[in-house]
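I hope you will forgive my troubling you with a question about protein structure. Could you please explain, in whatever detail you think fit, how the structure tokens follow from the sequence? Thank you for your consideration; the sequence and its tokens are set out here.
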Amino acid sequence: MRVAVIGAGVIGASVTYHLAKRGVEVHCFDRATTAGSGTTSVGFATATAYRRFPQAYFALNQAGIAEHVKLGGQWWHQSGTIGWSDDESFGGYLDLLAEWGCDVERRSVHAAHRELERSVDFPRSGVVARLPREGWIDAVAFTQWMLSVDGASVRLGTAVEKLDKVDSGTFGVLSSDGTRTEVDAVVNAAGSGADDVAVMAGARRFLGAPRRSLIIHVDIDHDLKHIVRAPDISIRPDGPGRIVMRSDQVDRKLPDRSGAPEPTLVDDLLARAHRVIPTLSAGTIHLAHVVDARCPRDDLPSAGALTAVPGYYEAVASAGVTLAPLFGRLLAEQMTNGTVDALLKPFSPDRFSVQ
């Protein structure tokens, strides 16, 4: 079997890795000259099922976390997540997590400060949840490791310019280096560029409107151990000398246009972080970056074969870092033996068959 994987981000790298491990002749293309240099390199990069709905999507993310735990590696940091909310329904949400099979520990705010994170300014009362199996990932290192797998042809700096349909399930891949590679299947793992690949393959567009997120990396010596999910800010460690942060509330204020982040929004995000971890005010900004990303238009993954276009598969998701190792394994199984795992069935590309 010969397969072209279009996109060398974390999902494309995982599909490449698992196909090569099964003896498939796999060619991975990406216009970028460095593996994982796109959204993979600047995203929040956590493996989490926190606030993931509906239940099928939660289960998919839980399985993605388990896949990271199984793989291990120096890029995987099983820090656990701690979170709290000022919403009265939070206790019911934790009950739901437990019902869905998630490991959830509950602490009073005083116990959380004493036992979990002494630098965090927890609320005066309420409950703090800890999800011990979650973690964060050095996504670039993970991506580069997967792409180093024996048996894969990784063609960085090489864009796919055209897909010729040779016959049912066979494609000719014309790339920017002037070569043509004939393959039995194409995997669209192009992330925000996935619509362009879909059209080239004779499929339909399926991405939603662009989503923008302000991510700030701060250099500071710290003792933060967990991913922190406060009501209006998310913060995680990024090794001993750096912190990464983002906020849904700040993201909603971002202008539609691309470009450098507005200073007022940078200040807003930093102020939210300082209220939760006051010692972060001593840090210096390493990188403040607005990530422009697109995902399937219902905000859920598209993973698997598109029935209308034989030989064409999709592997696109907003939670790419969480799901990458699972997607790679399950898609490789589907492509080589025809087995569609029950976890993937709700996220079939066929649901977007009509524009």
